[in-house]
Amino acid sequence: MTEVELTESTMIVHVRGADQFWALKSQLEIPLIHVVGAEVDPAVEEHWGDLVKGIKFPGTHLPGVIAAGSFYTSGGWVFWDVHDPQKALTINLAHDHYTKLVIEVTDPAADVARIEEAVRARKSS
Fold first, then answer.
1. In sequence order, what DSSP letters do the residues of the chain get, joined into one string?
2. Any idea where the domains of the chain sit in the sequence?
3. What's the pLDDT tens digit per position in 51-85?
4. Is the N or the C terminus of the chain less surrounded, counting Cβ atoms within 10 Å?
């Protein structure tokens, strides 16, 4: 599970608990200028299965159990930390190492709203 912290210029994704071990990361710090937007993507479970075709480095993938870490797919590098796809959100990025982050949070709709508001505020300043 992860928690999203937003500052005026940065989005910090804190990886919590044992997921730090599985993902081999404790946090990701992304400049807000790189955040394109966030969404609850109903196809996350389908994309989860596609990770088998990608390269995980470093990361852990047990289909139906956990996807955690960095995965190289046909769309570029993606960071995953998901146990329950129903609690996942996707954060799309530009000009960053990762093309997107797919993370599990407590309240995906609330975090999407917070991220989208931070992106709008950054664009209007």
1. -EEEEE-SSEEEEEE-TTHHHHHT-SEEEEEGGGEEEEE--TTHHHHHHHGGGSEEEEEEEETTTEEEEEEEETTEEEEEEES-GGGEEEEEESSSSEEEEEEE-S-HHHHHHHHHHHHHHHHH-
2. 2-124
3. 655 565 677 878 788 899 998 888 899 999 999 99
4. C
